[in-house]
Amino acid sequence: MCGIIGYIGRQQALPIILDGLKNMEYRGYDSAGTIVATQTGIFAEKAVGKIAALGAKVGDPSKIIGSLAIGHTRWATHGGVTEQNAHPHADCGENLWLVHNGIVENHKELKKELIEVGHVFKSETDTEVLVHLIEEARKKHRELELEDVLRISLQKVRGTYGIAVMDRREPQKLIAARNFSPLLLGIGENEYFVASDVSAVIKYTRSIAYLNDGEIAVLTPEGFSVYDFDRNLQTKKLHEIEWSAEEAEKGGYSHFMLKEIFEEPEAIENSMRGRLFPETGEVRLAGLEKFRGILKNTRRILISACGTAYLAGVAGKYMLEEQVGIPAEADVASEFRYRKPVFCEGDLFLALSQSGETADTLAALREAVDKKIPALGIVNVVGSTLARETDAGMYQHIGPEIGVASTKAFTSQIALLTLLTLFLRQDRGMDAVESKRIADALAKIPDLMRRILEKSEYIKEIAKKYCKYENFLYLGRKYNMPVALEGALKLKEISYVHAEGYGAGEMKHGPIAMIDGNFPSVFIAPQDSVYEKMLSNIEEVRARKGPIIAVATEGDMRIRELADDVLYIPKTLELLTPLLTVVPLQLFAYYIGVLRGLDVDKPRNLAKSVTVE
Ligand code: AGP
Asked: Is the peptide bond before 171 cis (omega within 30 degrees of 0)?
C-alpha cells in the first residue's frame, strides 16, 4: 500500500520526511516523492525506485529550509511506474500539493469535467484529479479556508482516500482527510505529523490520534483540530504506542503473514470496489470492456499459473464450467509450457500471478500469445511484466503481499475469478436472478471472513495441539479440492512439515495407506453438494484411528461427532466456500510455523517471486 507522511512544526521538515518514507519501505512501493514549502517557494522532488534514489536527487536535505512538507511512497494502481505518476501531485498553478492513498473510482468523469474547464493534467493517476478539484473549488470559494474547500471538493469523490494537502501560500497549515484509507496524526512537542502508519512517525512521537472516515484534520505549528464532514469539531483520543519500530512496520502484528491474513476482508473489498454492485447484481470490469467481443465468443478458457495462484485457478475452472457452461482448463504453468498444448478457435488464455513476474507463468503466457490466443491476466503488481504482456486484465488492488506465503492474493484471485464468472454470465444473458444471488453472497464474504478471524485464538489452540505431528493429509472435493492442496502447501512452506493435499475421492486409491494415529487428516467439508461423500471419507479415516480436523459449516453437529477438532466457517454458496475454508487453514499453518520457531515471513529456500525457471 502507498505510504504517506506530512510534517509541520519547529524542525526542518525534509530530513524527517525522508526518514519517515524510509521507515515505510516495507509496505512495498515503486516510486516516491516529496514537497517542501520553503522561504523562496517550494522544493519538489520525485524518483522511480527506492527512497535512496529520491535521496540522491534531493542531496543534503538539511540544506532545504522549510518546516512544512509532505512525502509519499507510491504502489502503482492507476498509471505506470513513472516520475510523472509519483506523488505529490500539484494543481495547475503549482500552489496546491497533495499525496493520496486509495482509489478514486469516478476519476475518469471528474477528470473530463476538469479538463473541460481548462485544467491541465500531467499524470495518468486517479489521484491528480483530487488536487485539481480543490483548485477549482478554491476559485469558486475564495473566502473559504483550505479545509472547507477540501470538504467541498471531496463531496464529489466516490472511492477511498487518505490524503495530505498543503498550499505553498499557507505554509502554516497542513490538512489531512480520511475515507477508508488509514490515516493518523502524530502529536509531538510543538510539531505535528500526518501518516498512513505508525512506523513513519514512531521515532519522533508515540502519541497518536487516528482519523476516522469522513474526518478532516487541520495541523498548524501551534496545534491540531479535527472536524467531521459537517464541520463539527471532534475530540480525539490520544493513544500511546508501545510497539517497537519493527512491530510498527507490521501494524502491530507479529509477522507480515499474519497481518496479510487479517487484511483479507479489506483486500477482497478493495478487489471488488467499483466492480461489484450487489444491489443490482451488476459487475463492471473496466479492464475488460474492450475485450467484450472476444469474451462473448470465447468457447474455452485456459487458466495457467504457479503455486497458490494455480490453485486459485483450479477453483476458477470449476466456477466457470458450472456457472457459465464453457469448458475451462487449469494447468500448472511449468507443465503447460512444455506439453505442446493444442489451441482451438475461441480459446482464451488466463494467467494468474500476484507478482506478475513468475518465470513459468510468463513462459506459458508467451506460448499462448505466440499462437495468437487472446490473453487475460489477474495480477496484483501494476506494470509488472505479465500485466504488460497480456491483452487485458484485472488488477487485484490488494497492496503488496510481503509474506512469502501467499494468503490475501489467493482469496483476492478467487474473488476476481468470481467477478469474471458473473461478468461472462451477464454478457451471455444468463439467469440474472442466480447471478444476483451469487453477487449478494460475494458481497457478504468480507464480513464472514471477519467472523472466522475473530476465532483466531481458538485456531491457535488447535495448532498447538497438532504442532508436533510430522505428517498431514489434507482432503477436499470439488471447489475445496484446490483448498485442500492450498492448505497443505501453506503448512509445507511455512512449517516445513510434510503435508499432502488430495481430492478426497482419491483417498482410497493410495493415500489412505499412510493413515494411522500419527498421521492427522484435515477434511475441508462444508455443507455442500459433496458433503455426504466427505462424511464417508471421514468415517474411513476414523476407522483407521487417524486424528481428524474438519473445516465445517457453523451449526454442523454431525461432523462434531466424527472429528477430533472442528474449525467452523459461516455458511455461504458452494462456489464461494474456498474464500472461507482457506482462512482457518492459513492461520493453522501460520501458528504451527510460529510454534516451531520458524521465520514464517521468509521460509527457507523460498522466494516471494520465482523469477527463474
Ligand atoms: C505460495 O504461498 C507461494 N508463495 C508460491 O507458490 C506462489 O504462489 C507462486 O510462486 C506464484 O507466485 P505469483 O502469484 O507471484 O505468480
From this structure: no
Q: 395 with 80: CB under 8 angstroms? A: no
Measured from the CA of 361, which atom of ligand 1 is nearest?
16
**What's the chain's Rg over C-alpha atoms?**
25
465 flagged as catalytic: no
Question: Under 8 Å CB-to-CB from 222, ≥6 apart: which residues?
Answer: 190
Nearest CA to ligand 1 atom 9: 307
Task: Return the amino acid letter for 238.
Answer: L
386 CA → ligand 1 middle, Å: 14
Query: 467 catalytic, yes or no?
Result: no
| Cβ(396) – ligand 1 distance below 6 Å | no
- Average pLDDT of the chain is 94
Q: How far apart are CA 167 and CA 165, in angstroms?
A: 7
Q: In angstroms, what CA-CA distances link 490 with 80, 218, 584?
A: 32, 45, 11
Provide the pLDDT for residue 364.
96
What is the Å distance from ligand 1's center to 116 Cα? 45
Q: How far is CA 562 from CA 464, 515, 558, in A?
A: 21, 16, 7
State pTM to two decimals. 0.78
- b/e 535-563 (16+ beta carbons within 10 angstroms → b): bebbebbbeeebbbbbbbbeebeebeebb
Sheet holding 521-524, edge to edge: 498-503, 471-476, 521-524, 548-553, 565-569
pLDDT tens digits, residue range 392-430?
999 999 887 889 899 999 999 999 999 999 999 999 999
Closest C-alpha among 246, 242, 253, 98 to residue 161? 98
What ligand 1 atom has the least distance to the C-alpha of 405?
Answer: 2
Q: Please work out whether the CB of residue 406 comes within 6 Å of at least one atom of ligand 1.
A: yes
For 148-161, what is the HEC assignment?
A: HHHHHHHCCCCECE
